[in-house]
Amino acid sequence: MSLKISRILHAGYIFETGAAKIAFDPIFENPFSRNCHAFPSVQFDLKEINELQLSAIFISHYHDDHCSMESLNLLDKETPLYMFCIHEEMFTLIRELGFKNVFSLKLNQSVRIGDIEVIPRRALDQDVDSLFQIKHQGLNVLNVVDSWIDYSTLDLLKSEGPWDMVLWPFQTMRELDVIAPSRALEASRSLPPEWVQQIKTLNPKYIVPSSCQFQLEPWSWYNKAFFPITYKQFQKEISEALPRTEVVRLNPGVSVEINTGGIKQSRSLAWIKPLGEQNVDYDFDPALIPPPTQEIARKFPPLSEAEKSRVLEYCQKELIEKFESMEPPEEDYFFKTRRWRLTLFDNDGKAFEFNYLLKDSSAEILEGSSSIPIGWTTEVPLFKLYAALELGEALTSMYVRINDFPFSEKIEEEIQYADIVEDPLIRCLFNGVFGAYQKAQLKEIQQRKSEHRI
User: Fold this and answer.
1) H or E segment to which residue 163 belongs
2) pLDDT tens digit sequence for 171-217
3) 38, 114, 140, 448: which sits with the fewest CB atoms below 10 Å from its CB?
């Protein structure tokens, strides 16, 4: 009656019994999502992963740290793949990768794989995320993945208890705060109170501090500004709130066996090789001063002349066309005419500056000097803007810097409540765009196959 649970990386797990072996959100890349490095560090044996015999694959949602074409491409394409996603296009992409048995998960509808039952549950953002309830011969496990739980779902989950184990996303991450660090509020270094209350409601026997298990590039200032929660803090707060609940840390490759009588260590996954110290922890520094974008841009390789031209032409023409094709910004701040300054930095630190006049749904480039004060600023490495245009780069890895600028007193009064994600560049790059990362991966995989045939 034992259920073996092994951590892959981030939100990835293998659930295994004598009759079934299921992978959840499998990621076999280090780094993954362009710049997410395994923390603690590990190496994957891709040859052994190629030989895995899985009963099924389950994917909770389409974000690139959960659904990666490069990782899926390592697996047997005959394996049934189940995914929660409201966009049919993602299922088409997975079929183009070669998977033949691809199924769309429906909330609260059970899927049985051997002697394991998987039930997708509704997350707070029901257009994106899902949770997984996993049952096996009297055992009841909740994989929260990295979503938030609304209270109607919590009521359902409470009625589904008792819970043997909960895999809980312990890291809050400051994804928007690092984009506008000079305007960010002070970070809380404790678990959100609603999380603690929800965990108390679930009252599991065991809880695993789950996603996230990564850091950014070794040189990145994000490593001390992005991750405010530590494993130590998670352990402390859970122990205080639920003294009978045992916190079980699962590093990549580590396995446990759980049954109705208890839990014990099991043989680790042979295809995940630990590199260095594994019981590492996060180190948040609220006093850290972010390096300027110009300095960050020097960390990236140079673009070719053709690639650079692609970016500059986008800023001169396509960006304006995209801005004017979208619905007007919902943010009150942009109801007024604003001067927006976009600055790109190449790997030598050279600046390429564009000034735009934004009015309603129109945009035009301002040439020369202007009496209109700057009302919004965006900075980004040239290399990263190219990656967003051509390689599906996500916002969280672009090192965009917004409004790091001393505006006039009047504008400072108006801008303090403005929504960062209404930034014109962010809107132009990401509004209405779906699956850019997976599409870029699929294109690269297909190109490799074509070159191999030649």
Assistant:
1) none
2) 999 999 999 999 999 999 999 999 999 999 999 999 999 998 999 99
3) 448
